[in-house]
Structures are given as C-alpha cells and as structure tokens.
Amino acid sequence: MMKKGSVTIKDIALELGISVSTVSRALADNPLVKPATRQAVKELAKKYNYRPNFTALSLRNNRTRTIGIIIPQLVHEFFSMVIRGIEDFAYSNGYNVIISSTHESYEREVIDTKALINGRVDGLLACVSKSTTNYDHFKEFAERNLPLVFFDCICDEIDSPKVVLDDFEAGYQATQHLVETGCTQIAYVGGPINLQINQDRFGGYKKALNEAGLALNESWIKHCETGDYDDGSESVRDMVAARSIDGLFAGTDMLAIGAIKTMKKAGLQIPKDVAVVGFSNWSIGTIYEPSLTTMSQPGYEMGQKAAELLIQQIDNPDKKLTDTFTLHSELIQRESTQR
Amino acid sequence: MMKKGSVTIKDIALELGISVSTVSRALADNPLVKPATRQAVKELAKKYNYRPNFTALSLRNNRTRTIGIIIPQLVHEFFSMVIRGIEDFAYSNGYNVIISSTHESYEREVIDTKALINGRVDGLLACVSKSTTNYDHFKEFAERNLPLVFFDCICDEIDSPKVVLDDFEAGYQATQHLVETGCTQIAYVGGPINLQINQDRFGGYKKALNEAGLALNESWIKHCETGDYDDGSESVRDMVAARSIDGLFAGTDMLAIGAIKTMKKAGLQIPKDVAVVGFSNWSIGTIYEPSLTTMSQPGYEMGQKAAELLIQQIDNPDKKLTDTFTLHSELIQRESTQR
DNA sequence: TTGTAAGCGTTATCAA
DNA sequence: TTGATAACGCTTACAA
C-alpha cells in the first residue's frame, strides 16, 4: 500500500462539490475557471498538501521526465563529477535522474539496463562497464527508439551520440611531458586494454615515444585488469627490480600511486629516479607525497554535454543525432615530475 | 514521446484477434487460458520483445516497488557501502532503488525529498545532510504514512525506525586506544558538532579522558565545519605550534590525514611524537604513509538493515516499527599508533 | 475458455 | 464557467 494519507483531485472535488476537471484546471491556473473556484481549490490543495501523483502523470503524458544513468562506479571522483554535471543540467530542465551503479559487472549492467526499458525513463545515459563485450541490451534500448547517449566508455556498434575525452591526445601529452622532463626509458601501466579509452591512452603513449625517437620496450608495458592501487604496485615490480625505467605514465592515479609505493619501497626516489604522470586528477594526488602530476578529466562538462544531447533527443525524437563530442584533457603538473 | 517502438498487450491482442484480458492472463500464466492461446501470446510477446509498462503497472497496483535513498554524498566510501547494502537487499526482494545525492545541501535535500512524496517510491531511506536543522520535509513524508527509515545521520524528532552506529562507543574506544598507547595529551578534531554522530564521538572521547584521569584542554578541541582534508590540516595548526599534544583522535580519516600532513610539515613524527586515530576506515588510510589507525564503519550492514526495516514496513504498513538498531565499530590498528 | 468493463490519478476534448 | 467522458497500459471481477 503506497500512500494512505495521499489526497487526489477527486478528494478535493468531492469536498468542494465540483468536478475533477475543474479542480485540475484550477490547479493548472487555467484562466477559464472562476477566480473564486480557483482560490477555493488551491486553498484546499494547500491544506491537504496535495501533490499530483507522479505515476498517473507519467502514464497520461507518456513521459516520465526522468532520465536513467548507467554507470560502472559511484566511489570514483570522475564519475561523481559526471553525475553532478548530468544532475545539474537535468534538474534545470525539469528532469529527474535515476542512477544505476553496475559495479563494473556485465550481468548487473544488463539487468539494470533492461529494468529501464519498460517506460521508467525517457532516455538513458550510459558508460559501459569494464567487463562488457556484448552490447545487445543497449541495442534493444536503441531499437525501441529510446534516446540513448554514451559517455566516456562508449559502444561503437550503436549509432547514438557519444561524449568522450580525447584519451589519445591526453596519453600523448602525458608521455610528452615525461620526455620533456628528460625521461628516456618511459614505462606504461594502464587499465584493461579491451576498453577503448585505454587503447587510446596507450596509443598516445606510443606516438609520443615514437616522435621522441625512443624505443618501445615490451617489458615496460603492462595492461592491468582493474586499474586500482594493488594493480599499480604489482605492475612495476619487475621494472623496479631491473632498475630499468626513469619515467612512468600510468593510466589512472591509483595505478600511479600503487606504482610509486612499490618504487619508494625499493629505494627509488620520485621524481628524481623515476618521474610519474597519472590520469584523472583525483584528490588523493594532491594529498599524496609526492603530489602527483596528472591529466585532468572534465567530468562535469562531460555530464552536462551528455545530458544536453539526451534531452535534445527526448524533446526532438525525429532529429536523430549521432555525433561524437570530444572533450580535452589538460596536464596538471605537481611534484612527481618536478626535477 | 516515450517509446515509439514499444509493444503493448493491446497490440498483441489485436494481432491475435483476441482480447487484452486474455493476453494479460496468458502472460501471467493463468491456468484458465487455453494452452494454444497462451503459447501464441507468449511467442508474439517474445517476438516483439514485449515488456509490461512500468508506469501502468505502478498506477494499477498503487505501488512502484521502488525505494528512494536520500544521501548526502556519493564519493564517500562509507555511503557507497551503505548503498551497496541497500541495493543488494532491495534487489533480492524485488525492489528497485532511486538514489538522490544532496551534496550536503539542505535545499537540495528538501527538493529531493519532496520530489519523492508523490508516489514515485514506496518508501524512503534517508541520511540527513550536515546542513539540515529543519525536518519538515521528512515530517511531511511521515505524515502521509509513507514508510521512512533513517540511517547514520538521523532525525530524532520523527518517530520512525533508525539504524545507527554506536558513535559514542567508537569515540570512546578510539581515545582509549590512544591512552593505552601512552598518550596523555590527547586532542580531538571532529566534524560539525550539530550532528549527533559527532556529538557522540566527542562524548566518547571525553568519557575516555575522564576515565583515564586526563584533563580536558579546550585548546585541543576543534569542531570543524566539513570534516575534510583542509579542515584537518587547519585544525591542528595552533596545537602543533605549541608542541602541546602527543595524541589525536580525528572524527574522520580525512581530518586525520590533513592533520598529519600539518604535523609532518612541522617536523613532528607520526606516531612517535603524536599518535593518530581516524574514523571510517577509508582505503586511503592503507595507502597513506604512515598507514592510519582508524575505526571501522559497517556501512554494508547498515544499508542492509535499513533496507530490511523499510521493506518490512512497506509490506506490513499496519505494524509500525520505531526501534533504533545500533551497529558497532571496531578498532583497526595501523602504523599511526604503533609505538 | 474468453470477453467486457471498471478502475488506478491525471488531463484534454467536447458539450452544455 | 463547468461537467462528463475518454484515454494512457494494465489487471481483475463479472459475464458469457
């Protein structure tokens, strides 16, 4: 039983001895209603704290004014900024938001996505999880002409608008910064290479090495499964033992910090012996010692843009958008590359 | 426009030349339906990927099978675990979840709460924000007999079930551990003292000092506005300058780490000169150097219990629950108190 | 075994 | 200026 105490327009109509349509019109400030009637209705509505039933409204209007978000993680500063950007844009355009966190699980992603196919939301913003390789659930969404926009980790197989970071450029900039810092033996440690974002960051790294005339050394390249702290500290063990590198580009800040911990333990000094650049500009990077040079990720802007594209599509279903919007990253210099 | 491509039972009925009620019954596996009919319906439903309209179902059943969560922050390891606990319990009981993050803003909390009063959710789980002092929005919720359960930061004025941590006990344990470590001049740095949780942690601190026969020194006590890193580093400046303390109980891990940074900068060694205990067991506490002794916060359990109480109330609206469930914290010893 | 019709709460169309 | 009615998609008495 949902709401015992809830008042409907029927109740108000009954008490006032008028019809529900008049009540409805009065509440909508329809100029046709007699001022006295309108006032009486509004007073009673206020007295009873009347609120229009959301479900009935949705059914009537065939729209929920709600957008869904499928996102792999919540405790993640970048995603959190994306969510804020989405929320701010959505709220100021009269939309609500439902967030589903998939915890990077494909199964959860499928369940959550399908749970939103049934008219619960007017459209969907999605960032695919690390473990996703099959996109049928998103295709089903798109096939029903439900507006869908991807952000960050996108699905290329589906023809919908996308908002991404130029990860290639960012990877290139990060590595180039290490080159400029004087590094000549630069390692790469990144997240799951099945993700396009990681392929791009890695691609930028290779391009920068290439341009600088530096050789690519396979033993200095690690693609980790998660991109977290433990992966980071594990990934550089061999390189550290071999004392072979003098620079490191890490695909996430947590990888960077994990790696730094291992290097510090082995007696290496950061940035003197090894300069390190992370990725994402997490706040821990300002707190950690040494503070971490990193690439910014404009999450708020990404969220705003994605929400804008989605709401555009919802409000204008005929004009199909399929563009990809690209945002850019900036280098944030801190101690870990200050020589 | 919500879903152009969406199929309704009407469409199926039309195509099969039968009535909607038969379709509805067939899909519900009603044994009255002739097997052949049932099969035909199911096949067509499958072919068209039919999904029952969520909104229509909600309106019909007067329940949404959705519970709302009002939570101050998302990027917060404790809250994130709470959410997981809630989600797991809710999902396995056939409920969905809507999360509203208030970003510790009272205004946002009011808006978000009121947006859920209108039949969008069958019940609400709430943790009040730091800036909230007026509880009318929650009262309105409760007055409509909408099930409501508070967790962590609760509202005493409202007669609904609550799930809390024994913050008093935890503050006591943390401080006692410092006493046992040999500290005699123990400072307290905590979050906003208008919150009950902080009053309790502070209360536990005072009790432990008292029992140990240690004096309370007003200049060693700071109630911060936010409880974040910057507050932490600011809060201990005077004490550090005076070289007056040898122990610190911080009400959050971020406060602890901010304080440690200031102390380290001033040349103090942790834990040798000052032993530090934090609160919440955030993962940064394992990464930071020195690793941080802290009090655990069983967020997952809290979320599960809160969801359980809420769903109990939803399924059984007559039996009013008003109990408070108390969970307990445990000391996690790490380097910052290892002498 | 199936169909008709009412109802969930709301708004819009038509009549009065 | 107001009221009766249909409709959104679904389920369920009640009838047939």
UniProtKB/TrEMBL annotation, chains A, B:
UniProt keyword terms in alphabetical order: DNA-binding, Transcription, Transcription regulation
GO molecular function terms noted in the UniProt entry: DNA-binding transcription factor activity; transcription cis-regulatory region binding
InterPro entries, sorted: HTH_LacI, Lambda_DNA-bd_dom_sf, Peripla_BP/Lac1_sug-bd_dom, Peripla_BP_I
Protein name, as recorded: LacI family transcriptional regulator
Domain HTH lacI-type: 7-61
Pfam families: LacI, Peripla_BP_1
Gene3D superfamilies: 3.40.50.2300, lambda repressor-like DNA-binding domains
